[in-house]
Amino acid sequence: MTENDPTAQDRQGQQDNPGTPEHGGWPTQSAPSPWSAQGAQPGSQQPQYGYNPYAQTGQTGQSEQPGLAGQPVQPGQHGPYGSPSTAIFPTPPDAGRRQQGGSGKIVAGVAVLALLLGGGAGGIAGYLVAEPAGGGSSVTALDQQPPAKRTGNAPDGSVESVAQKVLPSVVQLRVTGRAGQGEGSGFVLSQDGYILTNNHVVEVAAAGGQIQAVFQNGDKAEATIVGRDPTTDIAVVKAEGVSGLTPVEIGRSDDLRVGEGVVAIGSPFELAGTVTSGIVSALHRPVSAGGGPGDQTTVMDAIQTDAAINPGNSGGPLVNMAGQVIGINSAIYSPQSGSGGLPGQRSEGGNVGIGFAIPIDQARRTAEQIMDTGTAKQTYIGAGVKDSPSGGALLAEITPGSPAEKAGLKAGDVITKMGDRAIEDANTLVAAVRTRAPGEKVTFTLADNSTVEVTLGGQDVPVN
């Protein structure tokens, strides 16, 4: 703890003119500021603002990571507001000074007034100085009138304006099922209740569980799964018996730039309507949103951001500074486990400034497929892939009749580029292919610098 030692300063009155009485000074004493901070010792691991009441979420996820418990701060030696300040009174004007250009009568009058004040000034000054020490006439910041309420709109492009625009469209999802319970986030796609979220948020309710949607105004509604895609970690649910909801504005993710501002909104640790901000830290990060090492089932081509994302943010929107959704918050990096962890049911790791979101271009395509047909289609080439020791993606077995076989690709080929994008490993190739739609043509560059054009295929995603 650090303390500010109070200091006393005396201001001595000055003699005005020879022969005139000496004015009593206006000595004052300055007490500690009522707003002085009481910080923690450097290096202390105790948080400055008390314990974290949300350290344990009560969810039944698979992670055994420790909670984010905080420790209470030890009280300081002074109360939180210190002691009241003593007001500093100004020295009175020079009562005996001659007024330039004035008449003799005016000067004489001032002289008489000075004599009258001289006789009683000591008593008055003594009273005014002594009173604050007794707690009677102290003037503090609390005596000031509060400023007028703000009436203007939030500036365009500010976090405040983004929050005002998007918050009414963000939904908290509470999920229960035979495998346990959890919670996450989502956002409104239509006035009649279609909501986009992550598959891992709602999959626990896929076999007869329940989903409750809690809207920003506190209204609640039961919801059902319309369809889900584990390979892209996308799901669509429908809130029942609702109307007049506020849909989000969908942006695009193919023109994002590293460093641009973004805002994440969701329900971390069940704190609905939480807004955090940051930037786009990186693009095209191949991230596995589930499974074990080497599992390519849910590899996504993620947007990396330093906007705070925590357990419960999953499924919520990542928004640009125009209030347009450009991604779906889906995963965080958790140093405790050394790998990507999922907010919501699958990880209790906390935010360390490395979060990942599914690009909205990919999520939008999948959501449209689910809403149109109830199922999603997965883009594929029809070949097993693994990391090449020399860099790139090594093709293993080739599926007969697949797009890869039709294009002339063979087992043992190493893909080093897809279009202009470098392919460093197998996950990069899987993520890059899944950003494209079935039927698109792409050009692969092989390790020998030859190129092959492939028409990407599409197949229904199996849902267990």
Task: Give the SSE map.
Layout (H helix, E strand, L loop, with lengths): L7 E2 L18 E2 L74 H30 L25 H8 L3 E8 L2 E9 L5 E4 L1 H4 L7 E5 L5 E10 L4 E6 L9 E2 L10 E6 L7 E15 L10 E7 L11 E4 L3 E11 L4 E3 L13 E5 H14 L3 E4 L2 E5 L5 E6 L4 H5 L6 E5 L2 E2 L3 H9 L6 E6 L4 E5 L1 E4 L4
Parallel strand pairs: 9-14
Antiparallel strand pairs: 1-2, 3-4, 3-6, 4-5, 5-8, 6-7, 7-8, 10-11, 10-13, 11-12, 12-16, 13-14, 14-15, 14-16, 17-24, 18-19, 19-20, 20-21, 20-22, 22-23
CATH class category label of the largest domain: Mainly Beta
Number of strands: 24
SS-derived structural category: alpha+beta
In CATH, the architecture of the largest domain is Beta Barrel
Low-confidence runs (pLDDT<50, min 5 residues)? 1-130, 337-347
Tell me about this structure:
By secondary structure, the protein is α+β, with helices and mostly antiparallel strands. It folds into 3 domains: about 1-40 and about 75-140, no CATH class; about 160-375, Thrombin, subunit H; about 375-460, Pdz3 Domain (Roll). About 15% of the residues lie in helices and about 30% in strands. It is built from 6 helices and 24 strands. The chain has helices at about 105-135, 160-165, 200, 360-375, 405, 425-435; strands at about 10, 30, 170-175, 180-190, 195, 210-215, 220-230, 235-240, 250, 260-265, 275-290, 300-305, 315-320, 325-335, 340, 355-360, 375-380, 385, 395-400, 415-420, 420, 440-445, 450-455, 455-460. The strands form 5 sheets. A 6-stranded antiparallel barrel has the order 3-4-5-8-7-6. Strands 10-11-12-16-14-13 form a 6-stranded antiparallel beta barrel. Strands 18, 19, 20, 21, 22 and 23 form a 6-stranded antiparallel sheet that branches. Strand 3 and strand 4 form a beta hairpin. The radius of gyration is 34 Å and the shape is globular. It starts with 7 loop residues before the first strand and ends with a strand. Residues about 1-130 and about 335-345 have low confidence and may be disordered.
